[in-house]
Design a protein that fits this description.
Blueprint: E1 2-6, H1 11-22, E2 26-31, E3 47-49, H2 55-65, E4 69-74, H3 88-109, E5 114-117, E6 119-120, H4 145-164, E7 167-173, E8 175-177, H5 186-198, E9 205-208, E10 214-215, E11 217-219, H6 220-233, E12 239-242, E13 248-249, H7 250-261, E14 266-269, E15 281-282, H8 287-290, H9 300-314
Parallel strand pairs: 1-2, 1-4, 2-3, 4-5, 5-7, 6-7, 7-12, 8-11, 9-14, 10-15
Antiparallel strand pairs: 10-13
Length: 315
């Protein structure tokens, strides 16, 4: 089976690529030219630099590989909620306009392929604690530019499913974590700081933002397995939460990483790490995806250990 992944050099994209190759599938991928760090892991004929905002370049890629494409996994995006506050226009442009280009290329060049559009738990916005875990039927009221962009991308996916018959699958990804991510999220930022301290490259001070928020964190390897199961057994045009059904506070994550690193550090609040708005709790109901036969293999403690060790190697 031939699978095309947009954003293949990202954490989830590279995890997808490894999983699919181990299963014997033929993996093709695109990424922006700025994604140089991982380009050597792909063979030339299976990888192309391409910006999803460049419709002509994207169409050229699809036309080149279209004869056997059976699955398109669309992950390319401005993927960080925190960054969207400083890069609102770029976030909306990439996540909405880029998704539209991908959908149009699928319609033109591989209309029979299954298309997975990565959506997000940030689409739910602020949800009262008494209304959690969040079910897919919950009203979408995003409070960040990133969340808004993902609602629009999901609506585009549903439009192409409804109007043109594309087999569009809509996973709402809760917080996917794992090795290989840049330090743009709290977990990666904490792990990077602790790795730098362990290596003696900075003083024993960890700068933090809000620690009282809680999130449904899921290992990217578990998330990929869930999304593959969705493509196999799920229904196109319907949202599916990709989550564990358990939430941990950012404070718990920080304490766990400090324990894993075996360091004595001072915690300092950094106002630069605060957001204008931040959901107090994002906890998903995982019953729709578990009904397809999915269950997680990794505990959050195991994932945090892998992330910390990854940063020890990277710094």
């Amino acid at each position: 089976m031939k699978v095309l992944i947009t954003g293949i050099t990202g954490m989830i994209g590279s995890t997808f690529s490894s999983y699919l190759k181990m299963a014997g599938h033929e993996v093709y991928g695109i990424a922006r030219p700025s994604a140089l760090a991982r380009q050597k892991v792909f063979e030339d004929e299976h990888f192309r630099f391409c910006d999803i905002l460049d419709k002509q370049s994207l169409a050229t890629v699809f036309e080149r590989w279209r004869p056997e494409i059976e699955i398109v996994i669309h992950l390319a995006a401005q993927a960080f909620n925190s960054i969207s506050w400083e890069m609102e226009h770029v976030t909306l442009l990439n996540n909405i306009g880029g998704t539209l280009n991908v959908l149009q290329c699928c319609r033109e060049f591989c209309p029979n392929a299954k298309l997975l559009v990565a959506c997000s738990s940030t689409e739910y916005g602020e949800v009262p604690i008494e209304e959690t875990p969040i079910k897919e039927e919950r009203l979408l009221r995003p409070v960040s530019p990133y969340g808004v962009s993902k609602v629009a991308a999901e609506c585009l996916g549903y439009q192409y499913f409804s109007n043109y018959g594309l087999k569009v699958f809509l996973p709402r990804l809760f917080i996917h974590v794992g090795p290989g991510h840049p330090p743009a999220t709290a977990i990666q930022n904490f792990a990077r700081q602790l790795a730098l301290i362990r290596k003696g490259l900075c003083p024993p001070i960890v700068k933090v933002g809000r620690l009282d928020t809680a999130r449904d964190f899921i290992d990217a390897r578990d998330g990929v397995k869930a999304m593959m199961l969705l493509l196999e057994k799920g229904r196109p045009g319907e949202p599916y939460n990709i989550c564990t059904g358990e939430a941990h506070t950012v404070q718990w994550v920080l304490d766990s990483l400090i324990r894993i690193s075996d360091l004595n550090v001072e915690i300092v609040e950094d106002h630069c790490l605060m957001r204008p708005s931040d959901e107090a709790l994002l906890l998903g109901d995982s019953s729709k995806i578990t009904a397809l036969g999915w269950k997680p293999d990794f505990t959050l403690e195991q994932t945090l250990t892998d992330i910390y060790n990854d940063w020890l190697a990277r710094v």
